Amino acid sequence: MCAPGWNCDGSIPINRRSFPQVVLKVLQLLEKCLLGNYRMDAITLQPAAGATGELTGLLLIRAHHEKNGNPRKKVFDSGLGA
Question: How far apart are CA 53 and CA 50, in angstroms?
Fold first, then answer.
């Protein structure tokens, strides 16, 4: 029996339009596996603090402004003042 949306050989059918959904499926599967293996109530795959976390925050802020019709070329340089 195959998992819904997956090929029976374990591969995932990918095309340009479905790629974001495939990534979400993989992240959900990873989250489910980690929760099962470590018996935790919840887990996050959010980027850790530091440059990766800061970049994630900046990209979220930019996406918010673009969604609300106020695209900006520059939100701010850095939250850390670097």
Answer: 5
**Whole-model pTM over 0.70:** no
pLDDT of 20 higher than 70: yes
**According to the model, what pLDDT value does residue 79 have?**
56
Cβ contacts of residue 57 below 8 Å, gap of 6+?
A: 79
The identity of residue 77, as a single letter, is D
CA distance 30 to 35: 9
Q: How far is CA 26 from CA 12, 22, 81, in A?
A: 9, 6, 35
CA nearest to 27, candidates 48, 8, 16, 43: 43
